[in-house]
Design a protein that fits this description.
There is one protein chain. This protein is mainly alpha-helical. About 70% of the residues lie in helices and about 0% in strands. The protein contains 24 helices and no strands. The longest helix has about 35 residues. The protein is globular.
């Protein structure tokens, strides 16, 4: 009976593993084949060399590296400062502060860019209402490399905050006490004890932030294109939007270029992390809690002031812009109106379609990935074969690659389905499959970590009394892994609901997502309606996060991702 059960497990593992590989790795393989194909249809580097030598390509690469690197530096300064203060000190209202710091990551980058442009420049409704607007004709300061860097830093600071905070919370109080007994005090304790133990998580967060900033499309497109500052994702979008599928080979090479830079960033992070020779033994008995004394109130005022600047002020700019009849009209009791809200929410059919599409795609992606990843993680742990180990090592690649790169890969793979004349390009299914590939690792990694912590004896005991494979999955594995799966599902849903980078190149009439509609409204000059729709999305996201936060007390530990 045991041999029969093992055969059932092997067959199920093979089916799910092949499905997962087709979803996640086959688009990447197709992209590299296209990028390495010459004009004559043979493998070679002639086409790639020709495209990479163009001045537009080299400039876009330079601009991408500059904005990603300095944007990561801004994220590092902000995220690490908040992480050290929140995790190591006796600040008050930490839960609310962590919740607020998660919101920028959940807000789409195009909304971040739009909201900040509403509080700067001569046409700012908020500044006009306060009498602080610059003279007409003054340049918009955010349409610049500095503006892109600033907003990339704010958008991604939550990544460094979460990864660094997780590393800091693992440091026991006893380590610091031992250092103090040995004569280390003040900054010396922080520099010689806390910092070395935090470097792996800090390096991991920095690498993820760099790769994410490199592939960010919304902020560089909305701020860089008006200023003529074109990054690689924006260049790919312009070529594909202007010339269609006739330039697939060229954009495949550009996508490969971004891929190489992104992979180098990940490999560098892993190299430095493996060089880290400091390890913790055992679990923490008490977390660090350094008293701030008289400095606590000034530090709290400073931190909440920063939160207001990066979160409240831009949202206030969006709200004021959405309440005027036309962009640039000063806000007053005479001009205030809800016309743009009514127009964009109830009279524009594209908005209703976008809400339905975004919700359906986000929910469907989270649900399907949960169904796939739960049995796959368990079967891979029980049956470690060579193919599963290879898949495990490459799984993060579709998420590490910029979304615009994955879009090109999906177009190349699905524009002509094998052995048929059919195509998925221009349908909602290509966006759905791209989401599955993009967010697979976000769902899989928490479940995999949870499965590794389970005692194999529980499943073996169920098997010894005759439980079938389905019964063991249903009665043992699913209940024990449910918190990790729920955390992954919440994160996947919130991320996919606001997604733009992937869908920007895959949408067509009828398959618009919310991110695409906002980008198109702003691009066509409908700033007031774009602000109204953006505020609606922000309120929906914050409401969903608030509901999860309020329910966290009644849910098993580990379900709320920003508390894990």
């Amino acid at each position: 009976m045991q041999n029969g059960s093992n055969r059932s497990e092997s067959r199920l593992l093979s089916v799910i593993l092949v499905t997962a590989i087709c979803l996640t790795l086959s688009p990447v393989l197709r992209l590299f084949i296209e990028g390495l194909t010459t004009n004559q249809g043979t493998l070679g580097l002639s086409l790639a060399s020709e495209i990479l030598a163009k001045p537009s390509t080299l400039n876009a690469l330079k601009y991408s590296l500059i904005t990603a690197a300095f944007g990561t530096l801004v994220s590092l300064i902000l995220g690490a400062a908040f992480a050290f203060l929140v995790a190591l000190t006796d600040l008050r209202a930490k839960a609310i502060l962590v919740f607020c710091l998660m919101i920028p990551m959940m807000i789409p980058p195009q909304i971040t860019a739009l909201s900040w442009t509403q509080i700067t420049g001569p046409s700012s409704v908020l500044l006009k209402a306060l009498g602080l607007a610059p003279p007409l004709g003054s340049p918009q300061p955010l349409y610049s490399v500095e503006g892109i860097i600033l907003l990339l830093g704010i958008q991604h600071m939550s990544i460094i905050f979460l990864t660094t905070r997780a590393g800091l919370r693992a440091i026991p109080q006893e380590v610091v006490e031992a250092a103090r007994i040995s004569g280390a005090h003040g900054l010396r304790t922080w520099w010689q004890v806390v910092m070395p133990l935090t470097l792996p998580s800090l390096a991991a967060g920095t690498a993820i932030t760099f790769v994410t900033a490199l592939g960010n499309f919304g902020i560089p497109a909305m701020l860089g294109i008006p200023a003529g500052y074109i990054t690689l994702p924006a260049l790919i979008y312009q070529k594909l939007a202007g010339l269609g599928t006739s330039v697939l080979a060229e954009v495949a090479v550009l996508a490969m270029l971004i891929s190489v830079v992104a992979v180098i960033g990940i490999l560098a992070q892993r190299f430095f992390q493996t060089r880290q020779k400091i390890y913790l033994v055992g679990s923490t008995s008490r977390p660090l809690a350094i008293p701030l004394g008289a400095a606590r109130l000034p530090i709290e005022i400073l931190l909440w002031g920063v939160v207001c600047i990066i979160l409240v002020l831009p949202m206030l700019g969006l709200m004021t812009t959405s309440l005027v009849p036309a962009y640039g009209v000063p806000l007053s009791f005479d001009t205030i109106t809800l016309t743009s809200w009514w127009e964009v929410l109830f009279r524009q059919p594209v908005s209703a379609r976008a809400f339905v599409n975004s919700f359906s795609l986000a929910f469907g992606t989270a649900f399907v990935l949960m169904i796939l990843c739960l049995p796959l993680a368990w079967l891979m742990a029980r049956n470690p074969i060579r193919l599963s180990r290879l898949f495990d090592s490459l799984l993060d690649l579709p998420y590490a690659l910029p979304g615009v790169v994955l879009s090109i890969a999906m177009i190349l793979l699905l524009i002509n389905l094998p052995f048929t004349e059919a195509t998925l390009y221009g349908t909602i299914w290509i966006i759905f499959l791209a989401y599955l590939a993009r967010f697979f690792s976000i769902m899989f990694r928490p479940i995999q970590a949870s499965i590794k912590q389970l005692d194999p004896a529980m499943g073996e005991a169920a098997q010894s009394i005759g439980a079938s494979l389905y019964q063991r999955l249903r009665d043992v594995i699913v209940p024990l892994s449910a918190p990790a799966a729920a955390a992954g599902a919440i994160l996947v849903f919130l991320t996919a609901f606001n997604e733009l980078t992937v869908s920007a190149l895959l949408w067509s009439s009828g398959t618009e997502t919310l991110g695409v509609v906002i980008f198109n409204l702003d691009d066509s000059g409908e700033n007031v309606m774009a602000s109204a729709l953006s505020m609606t999305i922000v309120m929906v996201v914050m409401l969903l996060m608030a509901v999860v936060q309020l329910l966290s007390r009644h849910l098993p530990k580990g379900i709320v991702p920003w508390q894990t």
